[in-house]
Amino acid sequence: MEKQKWIVRIVSAILVVLMLGTLLVPMMNMVYADTGDDIKAELDRLETLIDDLNSQIQANQNDAAKAEQMSEFYQKKEAAVRAQIDALKQDIAQRRADLEQKQQELALQVQKVEQAQELLSERLRAMYEMQRSNPLSVLLGLEDVSDVLRFSENLRTITLSNDEVITNLKNERAAMEQQAAVIQTDLDGLNAQEQQLEASQQELASAIVAANKMVDEAKAQEEALNVTLAETQEQYKAEAAKWAQWVAASSADQNYIADNGEFYWPIPGYYRISSDYGVTRIIYGVKDVHRGLDIPAPAGTPIYATAAGVVSTTAHWSYGTCVKISHSSSHVTVYGHMSSRAAGITDGVVVQKGQLIGYVGSTGNSTGNHLHFELDVNGSPTSVRPYLDPNIESQLYW
């Protein structure tokens, strides 16, 4: 009887364990899936944010560069206008000096005309008085007829000479007045040009101030964006660490790992390496060490499992469409940037060494069609070379 109770207890305990297992495993898978989804969503968000920030920073740098070019352009134009104004001021000063000299000459000419007219008036008055006197007494005072003729001729010559002098003086005065008017017209034109150039200089000075303000605003915005970018990059590194944990997580307890030197080459016939394991790069301003091998190949080239294992799949922000194969609790290979996964390659599927798992593409953070082939041991990237067939290793080239 006691033996039967003992058997019943054991069976009951086994049933309880099995029931708990059936409940816990799905729950654990849900938690893992939710965690993977959360990591993917956060990485996608951070990727978009980093791209947007870099785009905004680049746009601000472009705006600042354009504003600086505008400022330099306006400064050059303002300097040219300033030089024109200086040259105009010299012309204006010269024309004013010419005008003053011409006005002085004109004043002297007017004085000469007035003096000549006054002298002629005095002579005419004298002649008039002479005419009013007794002509006979004048003539009687002369010694002979030749003196009489000479006196008459002299009177006529004096009158004509004075008339000619006055006429010439008046003509010269008119010419100088005309020259002074021309100088004044030129001076007025130069003054108008000076006013226009000074107005242009003020406009250019305002444009320079506005352009410099744009430069300062763009640079201030860039500094703020750089601060945000640095914070976002720190978040990115934290999520990348979560990605490493994701890679390290095992999809099964079985050990499918092959012995060293027995890994199958995932793209037979393509042995050129465009980026080797351990190469240092800068991604989104963050120093990054390349985690695997980049193998260029045409889009659609078949990709094969390097060893047997359990599949898990995801769409990672950096690796794009990819496949993770857990070969043991410690060894995981990752195949990134696929154009698509092969039919039937889904989470939990067991694949064999050399089985088709997908096709070469350029999804995720990629600049061309290639396969990112990565080996992680206990969550840390490791060189896959020691696991390759020596014949394959000898065919690799750069």
From TrEMBL:
Keyword Signal assigned: yes
Q: Check the record and name the SUPFAM superfamilies matching this protein.
A: Duplicated hybrid motif
Question: The M23ase beta-sheet core domain covers which part of the protein?
Answer: 289-382
- What InterPro entries does the record point to? Cell_wall_metabolism_enzyme, Dup_hybrid_motif, M23ase_b-sheet_dom, PcsB_CC
Positions of the Peptidoglycan hydrolase PcsB coiled-coil domain: 111-178
- GO molecular function per UniProt: metalloendopeptidase activity
Q: Which keywords accompany this UniProt record?
A: Coiled coil, Signal
Q: What start-end ranges are recorded for coiled-coil regions in this protein?
A: 36-119, 166-235
One Pfam family here? CC_PcsB
Q: What is this protein called?
A: Peptidoglycan DD-metalloendopeptidase family protein
Organism name: Candidatus Ruthenibacterium merdavium
